[in-house]
Amino acid sequence: MTGATTPKGERRRAALVEAAAKLLVEGGFDAVRHRAVAERAGLPLASTTYYFDSLEDLVTAAVEHHSNAELATGRRRLEELATRNRGVQATVDLVLEMLLGPESGDPEADAEAVLLRYERLVATGRRPYLRPLMRTLSAQLDELLTEIFARSGTPVAGAELKRLIALIDGAVVNALIEIDPEPRAAAARMLQAALEPAASAS
Question: What pLDDT, in 10s, does the model give residues 146-202?
């Protein structure tokens, strides 16, 4: 870490990471540029190269920040799920929130957000420098999803979890190809159909 050895430096670095994370979500990797990040953070252009060794370093920090924030939100929502509604619909909603992001209430905006998310995921595979971080984040997400299913009364093993994620991914990608205005709804139907037999048997 370059430069962030004082409280002021830590705050500036954190502001840059948060700005980069927002740009990443809004426009993908191409949106994360030194000038754009500095402007979004309200800091001088030189601050990005002062606090980060490279653009790759900044992008990595942004991906980690955004993913950790989503995981933290998921853990909080899991506690609510454990003490309130544990039905199939509540489970579907939380799983999709973790895999597709939160709903905004605007179907058109949600569909665009899902498209951007999948574009970002595909683009991540073209960036070898992100692979170690993505392996760590993927393992943490799988752990959280496993706990969500377990506390919902529909525990799944590792292979079954991968199958359910593949079902969701397939439903979303197919909906995007068909220009379905509600890819989240397509994924919800697929996941609900997969979970209902297990829920009925428990």
Answer: 999 998 888 999 899 999 999 999 999 999 999 888 999 999 999 999 998 765 555
CB within 8 A of 42, min separation 6: which ones? 15
101 Cβ contact partners less than 8 Å away, ≥ 6 residues apart: 70, 113, 114, 117
- Cα–Cα–Cα angle for 115, 120, 126, rounded to 5 degrees: 140
Condensed to tens digits (0 to 9), the pLDDT of residues 28-55 reads 999 999 999 999 999 999 999 999 999 9
Which tokens go with 146? 């496993």
Q: Supply 189's token pair.
A: 């139907």
Under a CB-based contact definition with an 8 Å cutoff, are residues 115 and 175 in contact?
Answer: no
Distance CA 145, CA 180 (A): 26
Q: Which of 59, 72, 52 is closest to 21 using CA atoms?
A: 59
Instruction: Give the torsion sign (CA, 48, 49, 51, 52).
Output: positive
The reported pTM is: 0.88
Tokens 């992008």 belong to: 59
Helix (H) or strand (E) holding 71: helix 55-83
pLDDT at 196: 84
In 3D space, the residue among 186, 175, 18, 184 whose CA is nearest the CA of residue 103 turns out to be: 184
